[in-house]
């Protein structure tokens, strides 16, 4: 009897801690995330970037992340008050820089505002269909109004898809594209042998940007 009471108290304490974490941590993340995305939007909407397609991708990514931030964080926050409102562009930006740095005129033509806007629309459609298509047949609402997987297979498939889409493929693609961009810049710089020091400094900046992303 004493052990059951102790287990019950432990569960209650853990539930209390989770409740408090869901109540206060999202507020901090919302404030910092909002400032970050708003500054990105303000910076990349400057007239200086009007003719460059890469900032268009970054703006769309900031807007999508801004919406996702509030959907993902406000939901558990409101759940602590028993309220339940019934949740990737950086790669495209890297690709835009790769196309711009190419010595091939045809490939450089892919880096345009016309193509950027249509690519964003297509990407939004794909991102809604591919990663979340399994939601319609793998999830159900329990009696406690909690969204849960229907079986273990769905849970594994869902986890694999989310890991690949959110943490696996984006970094790999971004690193690969940025490495190719650096190679393009180095190839173009070979024609200017008198500026080696400046070229080396530019390479260092590109590598730093790659690792930061």
TrEMBL record:
Superkingdom classification of source: Eukaryota
This protein's UniProt keywords: Membrane, Transmembrane, Transmembrane helix
Residues passing through the membrane, by range: 24-49, 56-79, 120-139, 160-182
Protein name listed in UniProt: G-protein coupled receptors family 1 profile domain-containing protein
Annotated source species: Rotaria magnacalcarata
Native organism taxonomy: Eukaryota, Metazoa, Spiralia, Gnathifera, Rotifera
């Amino acid at each position: 009897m004493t052990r059951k009471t102790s287990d019950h108290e432990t569960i209650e304490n853990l539930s209390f801690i989770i409740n408090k974490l869901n109540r206060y941590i999202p507020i901090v993340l919302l404030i910092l995330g909002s400032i970050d995305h708003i500054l990105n939007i303000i910076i990349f909407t400057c007239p200086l970037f009007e003719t460059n397609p890469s900032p268009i991708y970054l703006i769309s990514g900031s807007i999508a992340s801004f919406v996702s931030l509030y959907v993902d964080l406000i939901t558990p926050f409101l759940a602590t008050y028993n309220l339940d409102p019934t949740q990737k562009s950086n790669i495209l930006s890297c690709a835009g820089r790769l196309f711009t740095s190419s010595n091939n005129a045809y490939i450089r033509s892919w880096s345009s505002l016309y193509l950027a806007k249509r690519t964003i629309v297509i990407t939004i459609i794909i991102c809604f269909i591919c990663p979340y298509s399994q939601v319609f047949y793998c999830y159900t609402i329990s009696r406690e109004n909690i969204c849960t997987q229907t079986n273990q297979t769905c849970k594994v498939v869902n986890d694999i898809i989310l890991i690949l889409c959110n943490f696996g493929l984006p970094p790999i693609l971004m690193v690969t594209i940025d490495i190719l961009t650096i190679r393009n810049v180095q190839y173009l710089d070979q024609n200017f042998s008198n500026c080696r020091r400046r070229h080396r400094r530019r390479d260092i900046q590109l590598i730093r940007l790659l690792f930061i992303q």
